[in-house]
Structures are given as structure tokens and as C-alpha cells.
Design goal:
This is DUF1269 domain-containing protein. By secondary structure, the protein is of the alpha+beta class. The chain has one domain (about 5-125). The chain is built from six helices and four strands; from the N terminus they run E-H-E-E-H-H-H-E-H-H. The protein has a four-stranded antiparallel beta sheet, with helices on both faces. Strand 2 and strand 3 form a beta hairpin. It is elongated, with a radius of gyration of 19 Å.
Length: about 150
């Protein structure tokens, strides 16, 4: 069975206030069992233009809160975390940021999809390609559904 991982990338402009809303939402989604945070990357430039970043690593979102708080409040730990990032990743994202801007990158596992896939497999079903769409009803997605069905053996 293939993994149900998703890479999410968000860009924040000048003036974004990181006060824990995103991490709080991730915690709530994990506690509910919908997702699992595999990795979190934060890269930003402060108002002076200094580049900083943190790769939070694997684990539960609950552990992210203390790590992000320490990163935010302790300049020595922020510098250490920044030095630990792969240089090509830090520079590649940092070169696209103006002072005051930031990227947040998440790699998440869709636990609900994994569990549903296991239930389908136990019944002899096979997962077909899936994707995120903007449609709000299946009747709006008829053409895409038929494309997927035609592509199966």
C-alpha cells in the first residue's frame, strides 16, 4: 500500500504574526487522529534581513510547541537550528524571501486515508489514483472521475 503523505508549502508576507495558531491546529488534527506531522520546516528573514530556519523533525505536533517557542525566544538556539539546516534548502528558500517574510513547509501523513485504504484492501478493493480538487460536488467532477476510471485496467 502506498503512503498517504502530503507536502504542504505556505508563504507568509511581511507582518505575519506567528502566535501558535498553525501549530495549535496541527495538534488538534493529530489528537483527532486525522493526520500525523512527519516534518515541519520554518524558514524566514527577520526585519533586518537575517535568515533563520528550523527543521522540527519527526514526532507529534505537541513536541513542536516547545521546540518552536524555544526557537522563537532563544537567539542562540535559533542560530544553532539555522546552522543545522541543509545549506541548499536554507539558501534556496531564503533567496526567495524579503525581510519579514517566511515559508512554512509541512510533510504530513493522512492517517485517516491509510486506515481507510487498509479497510478497502481487506475487502479486495484497489486504490486508484487520487488527487485534491476544487470541486464541491461529485457531479461537478464527472469528467475527472471518468478520466480516472478509463485509466484503470
Amino acid at each position: 500500500m502506498r503512503p498517504f503523505h502530503q507536502l504542504l508549502v505556505y508563504r507568509f508576507g511581511r507582518g505575519a504574526r506567528f502566535e501558535g495558531q498553525v501549530v495549535g491546529m496541527l495538534e488538534r488534527l493529530e489528537v483527532g487522529g486525522a493526520i500525523r506531522v512527519l516534518d515541519l520546516l520554518f524558514v524566514g528573514r527577520d526585519d533586518s534581513g537575517e535568515l533563520f530556519g528550523l527543521l522540527a523533525g519527526t514526532g507529534r505536533a505537541g513536541g513542536l510547541v516547545s521546540r518552536l517557542l524555544t526557537f522563537r525566544l532563544d537567539p542562540d538556539k535559533r542560530q544553532r537550528a539555522t546552522r543545522e539546516l541543509p545549506k541548499d534548502l536554507l539558501d534556496g528558500l531564503g533567496n526567495r524571501l524579503a525581510p519579514g517574510e517566511a515559508f512554512v513547509v509541512l510533510l504530513i501523513s493522512h492517517e485517516w486515508a491509510r486506515e481507510l485504504g487498509q479497510a478497502v484492501a481487506r475487502l479486495g478493493g484497489t486504490a486508484l489514483p487520487s488527487e485534491f480538487v476544487e470541486h464541491t460536488t461529485l457531479t461537478d467532477a464527472v469528467a475527472r472521475i471518468l478520466d480516472v476510471a478509463r485509466a484503470t485496467p
